[in-house]
Amino acid sequence: MPAYKLIPACKDYLWGGDRLRTRFGVQSDLHPLAEAWVLSCHPDGACRMPDGTPLPDYLAAHPEALGTHGRQFSYFPVLIKLIDAHGDLSIQVHPGDDYALAHEGQHGKVEMWVVLEAEPGAFLYYGFDHEISREEFAERIRSHTLTEVLHVEPVKRGDVFFIPAGTLHAICHGIVVAEIQQSSNVTYRIYDYGRLGTDGKPRQLHIDQALDVTTRGPVRQPAPTGHLGSCRYFTSDDRTAPFTDTADDTSFVHLLVIEGTGTLTADGDTAPLAPGDSYFLPAGSGTFRVEGNCRVIVTRI
Questions:
Q1: Cα–Cα distances in Å, from 174 out to 11, 38, 88, 237?
Q2: Burial 223-242 (b: 16+ CB within 10 A, else e)
Q3: Who contacts 170 (Cβ-Cβ below 8 Å, separation ≥6)?
């Protein structure tokens, strides 16, 4: 089986820019271009195979392509995005599985960011700078003073952040990230800077839900795993060409090119690689090789 170059699903959220198109080769008519879902089976935006077949349909016809790890899940558990924050994203939080399944009918969200570009002075909000009470949290939301107690993290290209469910966070302007996440689209907005949506009305906030699920303290970093990031939903590695790897029977392999150019050789075929390219290699498809001068995020379950 060959490697398949995926066609992303794209989003035009109001804070997006144009760098996914100009610097990562994403083809879309959307303006702004905020997100490209480069590996997704989510109903809110599924990728397509090179012939236009939705990725969920391909996997339904070829369940063995998931691998034995993937078939343990009742849903495709990972979603990978490119995100261009031309403006600030809302201050937000994602619930864990128990709360999300009970209240939203879908799974929760664990995620990881890899910073691909960052303008001078760029930063993100990442948890709190100290423990606060639920009452203080609620009052600071009401009084618009929440940012006074948030941890402000300066960022630079190459930084990696793991974001457990319940972590308050926001990507701020001037940052492009690759986001590897549990497949979910449940986001609770806590603060949105008073912005208006495309309908001219303030965007919806989810204060009660955020009070229920937010961890009101500093982020606890996971123990080192030897990988870029690893949890039950995904394991990702940052690889620099040249390298050889294998898509064995345990999992498909996803390749996201984040820098440089090169080639991918799999099943006797060779294809060019450029920033933003997204390739799906089915489980059991064997050895593949990446050559050239490029960096690739390699993800499997």
A1: 18, 21, 8, 25
A2: eeeeebbbbebbbbbbbebe
A3: 88, 89, 90, 91, 92, 124, 125
For residue range 76-134, list pLDDT tens digits in order. 999 999 999 999 999 999 999 999 999 999 999 999 999 999 999 999 999 999 999 99
CA distance 177 to 81: 8
User: Which residues in the chain show pLDDT less than 70?
Assistant: 1
The pLDDT of residue 38 is: 98
Mean pLDDT of the chain: 96
Residue with tokens 């469910």: 165
How far apart, in whole angstroms, are the C-alpha atoms of residue 151 and residue 172? 13
Q: Which residues are annotated as catalytic?
A: 189
What is the SS3 string spanning the chain? CCCEECECEEECCCCCECHHHHCCCCCCCCCCECEEEEECCCCCCCCECCCCCEHHHHHHHCHHHHCCCHHHCCCCCEEEEEEEECCCCCEEECCCHHHHHHHCCCCCCCEEEEEEEECCCCEEEEEECCCCCHHHHHHHHHHCCHHHHEEEEECCCCCEEEECCCCCEEECCCEEEEEEEECCCCCEEEECCCCECCCCCECCCCHHHHHHHCCCCCCCCCCCCCCCEEECCEEEEEEECCEEEEECCCCCEEEEEEEEEEEEEECCEEEEECCCCEEEECCCCEEEEEEEEEEEEEEEC
- Retrieve residue 253's tokens: 């392999």
Instruction: Tell if the pTM clears 0.85, that is, is over it.
Output: yes
Q: Are 279 and 243 in contact (CB under 8 A)?
A: no
Looking at residue 153, its amino acid is: E
* Cα–Cα distance, 95 to 99 (Å, whole number): 6
Residue 90 confidence (pLDDT)? 97
| 139 φ/ψ angles, rounded to the nearest 5 degrees | -65, -40
